[in-house]
Amino acid sequence: MSEDILRISLITPTYNERENIPILAEEIFAVIAQYPEIDLELIVVDDNSPDGTGDLAEELKDRYPIQVVHREGKLGLGSAVMAGFAHSDRELLGVIDADLSHDPVVLPQLILGLRDHDLAIGSRYDPESKVEKWPWYRKVISQSGVFFARRLTGVQDPLAGYFFLHRRVIDKMVLTSPGYKILLEILVKGQYNRFMEVPFIFRNRQFSSSKLNWTEYYLFAKQLLLFWLFKKRFSGHSKSN
């Protein structure tokens, strides 16, 4: 990719993130301000948060380049990401959690990495990464899912929620993941050749609780099975780093 301005839409799904969204926006744009070659807009996709997250995000538009997509209800993290992608008219796309767990300090490294890669992933499982105060049960669940998903993709953290890509990666596929691991579907079905993974500090959330529940875990298990079958069917199609 050329050294021109990188125009990117960064999607953040929200549900009851009123305390977090102003902090997230401030952190993101403070980091990006140091990189004039990056033109970033933040797209907040709010699932009708009872705490007024969507309305507060609208107020932030006076200070930052933000768009807000208001949805009628809690329709799932994966579908929120898809709604954000559809709302953007830019070639470069990214996803970041609104709960402040994804440290924006590595945003420039991830975005600039798209000059030479089709995908850039913030990895929790790089040797240089750090995960703050993760309960043991969540660690076990995450590592179990990653164990199986790695064998599908060859990626250290194929279940990351912090990732960036060229739109062409997903142009020829229909995203179907309603749950929280949309990256896995992209890695299995998308059109890409080169990816990179960047270590970062996975921070402890401050003002919100996890949105994961047994429904999300069931959807992930179902997703994993379907992708194993898909991969087996198209085993002749390989990807490389």
Summarize the structure.
The chain is an alpha/beta fold. The chain has helices spanning about 20-30, 55-60, 75-85, 105-110, 135-155, 180-190, 215-235; strands spanning about 5-15, 40-45, 65-70, 90-95, 120-125, 130, 165, 195-200, 200.
What is the CATH class?
Alpha Beta
How widely separated are the two ends? 17 Å
* Fraction in helix: 25-40%
In the CATH classification, which architecture applies? Alpha-Beta Complex
- Here the CATH topology equals Spore Coat Polysaccharide Biosynthesis Protein SpsA, Chain A
Tell me the fraction of residues in β-strands, as a range: 15-25%
How does the major sheet shape up? 7 strands, mixed
Backbone structural class: alpha/beta
Low-confidence stretches: 236-241
CATH H level: which superfamily? Spore Coat Polysaccharide Biosynthesis Protein SpsA, Chain A
Rg = 17 Å
SS field, number of helical segments: 7
Placed side by side, the strands forming the largest sheet appear as 3-2-1-4-7-5-8
Encode the helix/strand succession as letters: EHEHEHEHEEHEHEEH
Q: Assign an overall shape.
A: globular
How many beta-strand elements? Answer: 9
Average residue-wise pLDDT: 85
Domain count: 1
Walkthrough of the structure:
This protein has a single domain, classed as Spore Coat Polysaccharide Biosynthesis Protein SpsA, Chain A (Alpha-Beta Complex), CATH 3.90.550. The chain is α/β, with parallel strands linked by helices. The protein is built from seven helices and nine strands; from the N terminus they run βαβαβαβαββαβαββα. The strands form two sheets. It has a seven-stranded mixed beta sheet. A two-stranded parallel sheet has the order 6-9. The protein has helices spanning 21-32, 53-60, 77-87, 107-112, 136-153, 182-189, 214-233; strands spanning 6-14, 38-46, 66-70, 92-95, 119-123, 130-131, 163-166, 195-199, 201-202.
